């Protein structure tokens, strides 16, 4: 069992090493900068609250994806408020505008748009697929069978391909 | 666009961003000092305010009743006692269910947690069902002994009809306010305000989850 200090250090290491996961999930579910800051903060709070229960039965990335996705999907529906902290969560993040990326790459913009149009669960599947997770890992994160993941991802990919091909016409 | 092109596109959209991401250490430190939050601390201020009003109502009216029980009409005492009891139970159920939502472990699989969260959110409707049960007492609290004296037949028939209608309405709403009736017009009419939005969204999401698991 870790001491409070060790737990705190472990938390900092996890956040620093895997901040990309948190940001990508937040970016997929939240278009607004301010809301995204709140969402990232909520993810970190939930990670801290669950950290003492973590065991290595699952990879740390599986565990983090579960928390990040669960928080993101619940974010707008839940009826309890977040604990407020008045310190900016991510330095420099505010200066990185999504528009910059979008103007640079029209296709990236289209991909983001198409993903944003998916329902919350399809968004999660697509994100994990694009992050190159195996079907087995996606199944563990989502709580679905591998076969089910394959079928659903097949449908989503077809949908995206169709949308991309329509924009070329 | 093929699958590998899609993945490359996704990676290029994120790589610059990942390089420049900095987590604010102060904020992370602050989070590690968070203690377990009491459910009330996690609620929106408006909800806390309404909840507090409810509690003040129960305590205030309860103490008035207990102090003046021998000076007030028995009909008023009986009606107010039922109203207070139902309000107190509804507040208890509401806080208990919010507390359960607050304590959910988000590290379980996405579909498991989302189903749990949606069902718990929908179950806060139970508090509302209970509150509807108090409808009839709003037609009885003003009764008094003088109303029984004299020849007031017509008054009692009218009063009886109104009270029975309210009893019927209260029981009907208590039985019928449930997830299965979410698409009925009367249901959407009652729960169309902004404050009900999270519950209605949870219902829609639960539908989505069920289809997803098929």
Description:
The complex is a heterodimer of chains A (169) and B (214). By secondary structure, chain A is mainly alpha-helical. Chain A has two domains: 1-96, Orthogonal Bundle (Rna Polymerase Sigma Factor, Chain: A); 97-169, Orthogonal Bundle (Arc Repressor Mutant, subunit A). Chain A is 71% helix and 1% strand. Chain A contains eight helices and one strand; from the N terminus they run αααβααααα. Chain A has helices spanning 4-29, 33-50, 60-74, 98-104, 106-117, 120-130, 135-142, 146-168; one strand spanning 90-91. In chain A, helix 3 (60-74) packs across helix 7 (135-142). Chain A is globular, with a radius of gyration of 17 Å. Residues 79-96 of chain A have low confidence and may be disordered. In chain B, helix 3 (45-68) packs antiparallel against helix 4, helix 4 packs antiparallel against helix 5 (110-123) and helix 5 packs antiparallel against helix 9 (197-213). The mean pLDDT of chain B is 85. In chain B, 69% of the residues lie in helices and 1% in strands. Chain B contains nine helices and one strand, in the order αβαααααααα. Chain B has one domain (33-141, 151-213). With 214 residues, chain B is mainly alpha-helical. Chains A and B meet through helix 1, helix 2, helix 3, strand 1 and helix 5 of A and helix 1, strand 1, helix 2, helix 4 and helix 5 of B. Strand 1 of chain A pairs antiparallel with strand 1 of chain B, so a sheet runs across the interface.
């Amino acid at each position: 069992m870790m001491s409070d200090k060790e737990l705190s250090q472990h938390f900092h290491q996890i956040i620093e090493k895997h901040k990309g996961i948190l940001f990508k999930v937040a970016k997929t579910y939240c278009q607004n900068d301010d809301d995204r800051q709140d969402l990232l903060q909520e993810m970190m709070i939930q990670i801290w609250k669950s950290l003492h229960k973590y065991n290595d039965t699952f990879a740390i990335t599986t565990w983090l994806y579960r928390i990040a996705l669960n928080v993101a999907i619940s974010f707008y529906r839940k009826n309890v408020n977040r604990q407020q902290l008045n310190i900016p969560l991510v330095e420099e993040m505010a200066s990185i505008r999504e528009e910059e990326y979008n103007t640079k790459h029209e296709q990236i913009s289209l991909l983001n748009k198409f993903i944003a149009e998916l329902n919350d669960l399809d968004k999660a599947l697509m994100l994990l697929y694009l992050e190159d997770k195996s079907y087995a890992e996606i199944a563990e994160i989502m709580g679905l069978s591998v076969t089910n993941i394959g079928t659903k991802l097949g449908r989503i990919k077809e949908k995206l391909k169709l949308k991309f091909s329509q924009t070329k016409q | 666009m093929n699958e590998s092109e899609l993945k490359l596109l996704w990676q290029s959209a994120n790589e610059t961003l990942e390089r420049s991401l900095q987590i604010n250490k102060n904020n992370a430190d602050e989070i590690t000092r968070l203690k377990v939050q009491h459910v009330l601390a996690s609620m929106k201020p408006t909800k806390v305010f309404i909840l507090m009003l409810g509690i003040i109502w129960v305590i205030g009216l309860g103490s008035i009743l207990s102090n003046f029980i021998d000076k007030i009409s028995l009909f008023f005492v009986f009606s107010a006692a039922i109203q207070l009891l139902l309000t107190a139970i509804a507040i208890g159920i509401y806080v208990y269910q919010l507390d359960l939502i607050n304590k959910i472990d988000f590290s379980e699989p996405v579909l498991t947690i989302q189903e749990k969260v949606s069902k718990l959110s929908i179950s806060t409707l139970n508090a509302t069902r209970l509150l509807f049960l108090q409808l009839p007492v709003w037609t009885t609290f003003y009764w008094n002994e003088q109303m029984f004296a004299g020849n007031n037949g017509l008054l009692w028939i009218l009063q009886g009809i109104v009270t029975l209608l309210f009893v019927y309405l209260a029981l009907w709403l208590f039985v019928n306010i449930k997830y299965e009736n979410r698409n009925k017009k009367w249901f959407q009419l009652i729960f169309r305000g902004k404050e009900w939005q999270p519950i209605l969204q949870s219902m829609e999401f639960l539908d989505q989850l069920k289809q997803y698991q098929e």
